[in-house]
Write a structure and sequence with these properties.
single chain, globular, membrane, Metabolite transport protein, cell inner membrane
Length: 348
């Protein structure tokens, strides 16, 4: 039976699981950005020292993208997605019990490796399962999972931080584990991967890189700029609001909730728009419209104007991200090209 979107129930389960895994991964990551100053106080370090944890998490994600991407090629998307979720949940829990700052950094590095695998594996499972005509919409929906995770972290921070502290926030970060039974019982393997296995296609890495090195270079550079665009406007913004403007946790949480709602709307809006005007045009429009928002986003003084600037900025940032079906489509229709895209795309 088909739905109004012409998606079967199985396709909807896959879309939901992929979206939710990416959302909960982002939730775990953004817990850290809300408690940077508290970690600095606890470990007797500066905020800039503690922010190294963010840098290390992001720096090792390409390693995770490569490792989990290769395993997903060999063993399938579904089991590796489950392994990936388990892996980053464990290191999120260990972060809560860090006895020293060095131990905390090590746990965040390991978390970063796990985080690196989620986007490629989950998006491959989704894009290989849904109808081709729904790629733009699915790209926007899937990308909305990232700000949705940030939104979830904002709500949890506003509601529970004063009661549980920074360690309790990381303990709450174990929530992604509840997704595993759902994937086990409701989500099938990618039909594209099953077909490739039936044909006994060679998935060796080096031949793919040799044949598609230009594509790999293109994807790496584009994703580097995408990451600069998003993380440069997101990761330290709660700390900026607290330290530069003196906002309390409740107000920071409210502002973060609103700009993450904007991010979800932007991803879905531009992802859908890209179906009509093209991926590249949608990305360029969103990116260029972020420029006039910069003064409002960075240099406002009142909470309302800052919140408005953050709302508009994240609508554009995630709007550009929401049109990234273009990257997979540029890989072409061949399995070799698609594997190159999965191997070479650094994650968020």
């Amino acid at each position: 039976m088909y739905t109004p979107l012409n998606w079967t129930m199985t396709q909807r389960h896959v879309a939901f699981a992929s979206f939710t895994s990416w959302m909960l991964d982002a939730f775990d990551f953004f817990i850290l950005v809300f408690v940077l100053s508290d970690l600095a106080e606890w470990f007797h370090a500066s905020v800039s020292d503690v922010s190294i944890a963010i840098m290390l998490t992001l720096a090792v994600r390409p390693i995770g993208a490569l490792l989990f991407g290769r395993m997903a090629e060999k063993y399938g998307r579904r089991p590796i997605l489950m392994l990936n979720i388990l892996f980053f949940t464990v290191f999120e829990l260990l972060s809560a019990w860090s006895p020293t700052f060095m131990a905390f950094l090590i746990f965040r590095v390991m978390y970063g490796v796990a985080m690196g695998g989620i986007w490629g594996v989950a998006s491959s499972l989704a894009m290989e399962t849904i109808p081709d005509r729904s790629r733009g919409l699915m790209s926007g929906i899937f990308q909305a999972g990232y700000p949705c995770g940030y939104l979830f972290a904002s709500v949890i921070f506003g509601l529970f931080y004063s009661m549980v502290g920074w360690r309790g926030m990381f303990l709450i970060g174990a929530l992604p584990i509840v997704l595993l039974p759902y994937i086990w019982f409701k989500v099938p393997e990618s039909p594209v991967w099953l077909a490739a296995r039936a044909r006994k296609e060679n998935t060796a890495l080096l031949p793919v890189l040799r044949k598609q090195w230009k594509l790999c270079l293109y994807l790496v550079l584009v994703m580097a700029f995408f990451n600069f665009f998003s993380h440069g406007t997101q990761d330290l913004y709660p700390t900026f609001l607290k330290m530069q403007h003196g906002f309390d946790p409740h107000l920071i949480s409210i502002i973060a909730i609103f700009y993450n709602i904007a991010a979800m709307l932007g991803g879905i809006f531009y992802g859908t728009l890209s179906e009509r005007i093209g991926r590249k045009k949608a990305i360029m429009i969103a990116a260029f419209l972020a420029l006039p928002v910069l003064p409002l986003w960075a240099f406002s003084s009142g909470s309302f104007t800052i919140g408005l600037g953050a709302f508009l900025m994240q609508f554009m940032v995630q709007g550009a991200w929401g049109s990234r079906a273009d990257l997979a489509e540029r890989a072409g229709s061949g399995e070799c090209a698609r594997r190159a895209a999965r191997v070479c795309l650094p994650t968020r």
